[in-house]
Structure formats: C-alpha cells, structure tokens
C-alpha cells in the first residue's frame, strides 16, 4: 500500500530486574535523550546522543530511538467537543490529512516487533490554515522517572561492571527504591497486557498541554488515542514464536480490510493533579472529552516512506494549543532536532544505504 504524499517541509521484558531496567531505559531514551541538562554531568544534546549511540551501536540514517517502524497515513476528524476547547483549526476543518509513524521502543532497527514492551505512534496533522500539530505518543500510561536527573541515575545503573560485563543489579535496585514512579513503571511493565497489534494499542501523550478556547479560556489536559479495535492480549509464547515483522504484517492485513480508527480522548485534571510531572498519572475517574477520530488507511516501509524525514517534535503545536511547564517536554525539542540532523546528514553523505532502502535489510 502506498503512503500519501509528504507534506512539504524544510528538512530540518518482564519480571527479572534486568529486564525491567531495560524497559525503563528504552522508554527513557525516547523521552529523555531530549534533555539538555542532566544533573552534575550536564551533557549537551550532542554529547547525550553520542552516549546513546555508543551504547546502542551505530545505525546510520535511523532514528536514535524507536528505530524500527513503518510510515502510515490517513486523516483526522474533529468534534464539537474539540472546537469548544480549542480554537485550533484542526478540530473544525473536517478531514485533516495525517502523516504518521508506528514504531517500537528501543534503538535497534532490526529488533523483533512483538517482543518490544513499548509501542509508539507519532503523527503530523496539517490543517488548511498551514498550522502543524505533531504528536508523539507511547503505550505506557506515565513516564518512569520524575526528572532528567533521575533518568541519569537510572542510566548510570545500567553501565556494565568491568568485572562481570553486566550491570550491577544492586544499583538498579537502589533506583527502584528511591523513585516510586520507577517501581510503578516496573509494575506496569510486568502486569499490563501486551496488545497483539499496533491497531488495538492505546497511545498516550503523557504530558500536559493547554487548550485555548475561542474566548481565551485555557484548559489543561492530557490526551490519548484509544483504539476502536478490541484489545487482544499476546502471551509470552506467542511473542516468542512471532516473526520479526509481526506487527507490521498484522497491520497490513488489517488495513486490507479497511481503515483503522482511534478516538482522541482528552482527560481533564482535578485540583492537585500534577501538571508538570509526566511520571504522575491522573486517576482514571477524571472527566474526559472526545476531541476527534484518527483514521489510518495507508502504510509504507519507512526507508522510502514520507515519514522518514519528519521530526515528530511534540512541541510543534498549532495556535489554540500550548505547552505546559513540564521540563521534560520542554527539553525534548533540541535533541529531537540533533537526532534528526544527524540522520539527515548521514543520508545526504550516502552513509545510510540500509536506512534508505538502498542496501541490506530494511
């Protein structure tokens, strides 16, 4: 199936402790490799990405996190609830074209899809007034750590000990003991069902944003994409037996039967709910509003797909949607750009034949 034409843009593991640590680390890289300040080490975006590359191996031309994925396309239709909360044109236009990317967590572009604990969906919506809205969402319902400094502690706990060549489990145990959110994330990773498809996975925005209504009222909220396809859990035996491209093949089969839909649902906080800390989930009892529906109807390999050269920076927002004061959200943009620039440079220099579909596995 073909991917819709690209919008022209300027190219700018379950219960063992070690497995839980790997899940936390994989989730953290996708968010916190964007941090420009990490405690006493204070690495720049450049030095932090360099460390990630050194840890994960060289994969020229690929995204430094969520490396394995596919391009998707479709449209978004807003609702009256969306237009009441935000003046953004995307909610009033009708059909808004969508370019997106489905992926798995981690930095290995050849990783087995079914075995990835984290699934992700990134979107670019461009309304007819020229405004862009980019969303970067993940299957975990909250972030594992409350700050960039905490993530640095967790990352250091993963450094292999010279004597064994493996991380010292007592260091990760200390991180888990120190941070309740890390323990909560561990429990989620160990107990939450593994959806058997990208199509029946819920994708969460994690961060708080402010919707600005036509009359100027500002409403904090967090959004999620909730699938219309029913959840079917995939057990460990099925994951182990799955082919490496299981999720992509499954999604292609589902698309052959028709478009796949998710509802974009906003959760509204109560007084006292954390607005600037994505490690603190809001209770499920909070009121919600349905902002619209996402429909995906095309799919293409990322090597030549229109999503390959898009930086899905979640701070790119249309008028009518504003950032919160979440420092992790604020930090992401600089390193997303750094990662984007690196892979684009590698592609331009002919150093990424595999990532561009010119040679090797895709």
UniProtKB/TrEMBL annotation:
Its EC number is 1.11.1.-. Its cofactor is heme. Keywords: Heme, Iron, Membrane, Metal-binding, Oxidoreductase, Peroxidase, Transmembrane, Transmembrane helix. Residues 22-362 form the Catalase core domain. It holds the Pfam family Catalase. InterPro entries: Catalase (IPR018028), Catalase_core (IPR011614), Catalase_sf (IPR020835), Catalase_SrpA-type_pred (IPR024168). The active site is at residue 66. GO terms for cellular component: cytoplasm. One of its GO terms (molecular function) is metal ion binding. One of its GO terms (biological process) is response to hydrogen peroxide. Heme binds at residue 336. The chain crosses the membrane at residues 12-34. It comes from the Bacteria. Belongs to the catalase family. Has an organic peroxide-dependent peroxidase activity. This is Catalase-related peroxidase.
């Amino acid at each position: 199936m073909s991917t819709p034409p690209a919008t022209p843009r300027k190219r700018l593991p379950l219960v063992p402790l070690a497995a839980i640590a790997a899940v936390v680390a994989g989730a953290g890289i996708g968010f916190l490799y964007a941090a420009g300040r990490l405690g006493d080490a204070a690495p720049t975006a450049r030095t932090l990405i360099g460390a990630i590359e050194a840890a994960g191996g060289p994969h020229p031309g690929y995204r430094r996190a969520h490396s394995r994925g596919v391009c998707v396309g479709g449209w978004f239709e807003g609702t009256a609830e969306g237009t009441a909360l935000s003046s953004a044109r995307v909610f009033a236009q009708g059909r808004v074209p969508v370019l997106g990317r489905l992926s798995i967590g981690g930095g290995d572009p050849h990783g087995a899809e079914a075995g990835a604990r984290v699934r992700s969906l990134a979107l670019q919506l461009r309304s007819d007034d020229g405004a862009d809205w980019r969303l970067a969402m993940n299957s975990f319902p909250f972030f594992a750590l409350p700050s960039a400094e905490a993530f640095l502690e967790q990352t250091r706990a993963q450094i292999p000990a010279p004597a064994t060549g493996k991380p010292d489990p007592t260091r990760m145990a200390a991180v888990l003991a120190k941070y309740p959110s890390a323990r909560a994330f561990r429990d989620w990773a160990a107990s939450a069902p593994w959806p058997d498809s990208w199509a029946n996975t819920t994708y969460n925005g994690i961060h708080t944003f402010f919707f600005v209504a036509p009359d100027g009222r500002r409403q904090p909220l967090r959004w999620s994409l909730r699938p219309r396809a029913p959840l079917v859990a995939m057990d460990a035996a099925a994951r182990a037996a799955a082919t490496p491209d299981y999720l992509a093949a499954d999604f292609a089969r589902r698309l052959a039967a028709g478009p796949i839909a998710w509802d974009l649902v906003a959760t509204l906080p109560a007084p006292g709910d954390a607005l600037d800390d994505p490690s603190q989930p809001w209770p499920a009892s909070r009121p919600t509003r349905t902002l619209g529906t996402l429909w995906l109807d095309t799919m293409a390999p990322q090597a030549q797909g229109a999503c390959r050269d898009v930086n899905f920076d979640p701070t790119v927002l249309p008028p009518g949607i504003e950032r919160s004061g979440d420092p992790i959200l604020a930090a992401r943009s600089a390193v997303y750009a750094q990662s984007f620039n690196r892979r684009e440079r590698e592609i331009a220099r002919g150093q990424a034949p595999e990532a561009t579909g010119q040679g090797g596995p895709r």
